[in-house]
Amino acid sequence: MRKDLFEQLMESVKEAHEIAAGRRRPARVTRAADLLDAKNPDVAALRAHFKLSQAKFAKLLGISVDTLQNWEQGRRRPEGPAKVLLRVAAAHPDVLLSVTRAAPRRPTRRSAA
């Protein structure tokens, strides 16, 4: 690792420790409640919180990129199970990530030769 990158990393760790100890205020705070209102989820902010592209976030949620774009641009709103999934993503991102990583793959069919 380059020395300058290591020094930046160490400074980050020190800053995080100071924030956790209450000696320093965080530059910004993101709360699940801020990302996902009960009526209209802010899908773009949630995606930004995950630091994912539209394509990757759509794949994570199991939806099309077009659907995600419609939600983000306000042309449509998530409903039913999608809304619940977004609530889980906002409140417990680690759970969503662990479940999607561990998702079993469907077996492929081999054509009979």
Please identify which CATH superfamily of the largest domain we are dealing with. Answer: lambda repressor-like DNA-binding domains
Morphology? extended
CATH class of the largest domain: Mainly Alpha
Question: How many domains in all?
Answer: 2
Count, helices: 7
Low-confidence stretches: none
Name the beta content range: under 5%
CATH architecture of the largest domain: Orthogonal Bundle
Topology-level CATH name of the largest domain? 434 Repressor (Amino-terminal Domain)
**Average residue pLDDT:** 82
**Secondary-structure element pattern, one letter each:** HHHHHHH
Main beta-sheet annotation: none
State the separation between the terminal residues, measured CA to CA: 53 Å
Record field, number of beta strands: 0
Instruction: Decide which structural class fits the backbone.
Output: mainly alpha
C-alpha Rg (nearest Å): 19 Å
Helix residue percentage: 55-70%
Report on this model:
With about 110 residues, this protein is mainly α. The chain folds into 2 domains: about 30 residues; about 70 residues, lambda repressor-like DNA-binding domains (434 Repressor (Amino-terminal Domain)), CATH 1.10.260.40. About 60% of the residues lie in helices and about 0% in strands. Helix 4 crosses helix 5 and helix 6 crosses helix 7. It is extended and about 50 Å long. The mean pLDDT is about 80.
Helix and strand layout, with pairings?
Elements: H1 3-21, H2 32-35, H3 43-50, H4 54-61, H5 65-72, H6 80-91, H7 93-101
Helix pairs in contact: 4-5, 6-7
